[in-house]
Sequence to fold (73 residues):
Amino acid sequence: MSLIVPSDEDHFSPEADAAVDEMTRGAVLVAQVTNYDSATGLPLIQLWNLTGDEVVSINRTLVERGLARWLDY
Fold:
């Protein structure tokens, strides 16, 4: 995920994984590749859930729930 990192760990917690699963399972999603990880080459993405007329940022929601924090540059 782009611009966010795990709150207190090297990896996202099981709670963060469960939250992403809850917000994305069966949902229409939009992903924007914002960069690539220099070590792995994997894409870093901003992810949005499109529910009806509502657009929800998965990245922002993880931060708001305390499951991630914004990356400091």
Summary: The chain is about 25% helix and 40% strand. The mean pLDDT is 94. The first strand starts at residue 4 and ends at 6. The beta strands are 4-6, 28-36, 43-51, 54-57, 68-70.
